[in-house]
Amino acid sequence: xxxxxxxxxxxxxxxxxxxxxxxxxxxxxxxxxxxxxxxxxxxxxxxxxxxxxxxxxxxxxxxxxxxxxxxxxxxxxxxxxxxxxxxxxxxxxxxxxxxxxxxxxxxxxxxxxxxxxxxxxxxxxxxxxxxxxxxxxxxxxxxxxxx
Length: 147
Description:
The protein contains 3 helices and 5 strands. By secondary structure, it is of the alpha+beta class. It folds into 2 domains: 3-70, no CATH class; 77-140, CATH 2.40.50.140. Strands 1-4-5-3-2 form a 5-stranded mixed beta sheet, with no helix packed on it. The chain is rod-shaped and about 75 Å long.
């Protein structure tokens, strides 16, 4: 079996493991292994192939880590619109109880709602800020954007 075939098999295995585990870093390692296969096709020796694999995989992993570290952290799942489609939805609250809770009609059924900490209880339009279990956490909608 040719050396390049071994490198390609290793790269494919890294991609398959990445698909099973979901870690993007393994794709960077697979990229390094593929670069070593290309180095083999170019006629470089085994030491050079290993160095190419280490450099490309290591630099790719380092760049991806730096990109992820510089990105702002995502919101917790309960308040993340990408995870929960209810976050950001608008609804109407008729009244608030003394304990800052209410029953609201949302998506055709009754939901328990709680006012977000720091918000002033008032009747009217609200936005879903988070969903904690089956409780909607609401924040009043500013009057200018209420529709």
